[in-house]
Write a structure and sequence with these properties.
250 residues, globular, two-stranded antiparallel ribbon, single chain, 22% strand, alpha/beta
Length: 250
């Protein structure tokens, strides 16, 4: 998944308080090494812009939000739409070796993420990176947490159904799947684009083309009669106005 609309203030702590990122030791460079960039035949840092920029902001923000919601080093995490590991690098450093699995449809972005792992020395922590565009998580084990940062905002609803259903199959009982999206304020029977104002650039979002908006109630409806329940968490400080959902496996 190739997000274009993420970002956010650094270091969201428990109870909504702000603090410095846990992974201050992981001070990422502004670009890939020359060798990595040459191997990818792309200008240095191309992948950081392609996943929405705000590299040094959104990575720590994702980790701190999940930590404030119970993520511990011993948990296994599925990162849906991991891209080039903007958040993944922080998760990989925090989690025990082997506990991070990232899935993305773009081989180029995943390869760029492998370059970031080599450049930061985090490849020794044995993360698993998978290229797959069908949200096929079979064979990857079970997970305590999953996250889809700026993924639903680029998917039709039926693709969201597939992603959520497949994630439910690999979540452990009590496991949680966090996903961001653009909320629609209503009325429901409307097709006009809405402009989302955040700390970053204003962005138009649409009912029928990328980037998409959704009524939060549609996700609760989606979970009716399934093993999942859905809670709408709302604003979590995302600078481009994406809100948070959490799906919990009963």
């Amino acid at each position: 998944m190739v997000p274009i609309d993420d970002g956010g203030p650094t270091g969201l702590g428990v109870g909504g308080t702000w603090r410095r990122p846990l992974v201050s030791a992981l001070h990422l460079s502004a670009r890939l090494s020359a060798a990595s960039a040459e191997a990818l035949d792309r200008p240095p840092g191309w992948h950081r812009a392609q996943v929405g920029g705000l590299w040094d902001v959104m990575g720590p923000m994702q980790l701190e939000y999940l930590r404030s919601n119970g993520l511990q080093p011993g948990h296994r995490l599925l990162d849906v739409g991991c891209g080039s590991l903007r958040g993944g690098l922080h998760f990989i450093e925090y989690l025990e070796p082997g506990n991070y699995v990232g899935v993305d449809r773009s081989k180029r972005l995943v390869d760029a993420g492998r370059g970031e792992l080599r450049d930061t020395g985090l490849d020794s922590r044995r993360p698993t990176l998978v290229v797959n565009e069908e949200f096929d998580f079979r064979g990857l084990g079970s997970f305590d947490f999953a996250i889809a940062q700026s993924v639903f905002s680029h998917l039709t609803f039926n693709r969201i159904v597939r992603c959520t259903s497949n994630a439910a199959e690999v979540l452990r009982p009590g496991g949680q799947f966090f996903a961001t999206f653009f909320p629609h304020p209503g009325p429901r029977l409307a097709t006009a684009p809405i402009t989302v104002e955040g700390d970053a650039d204003a962005l138009d979002v649409y009912c029928d083309r990328d980037p998409y908006y959704y009524d939060p109630d549609i996700f609760r409806w989606l979970c009716e009669g399934s093993v999942l329940s859905c809670e709408y968490r709302g604003d979590w400080g995302h600078p481009r106005g994406q809100h948070m959902l959490v799906f919990t496996r009963g």
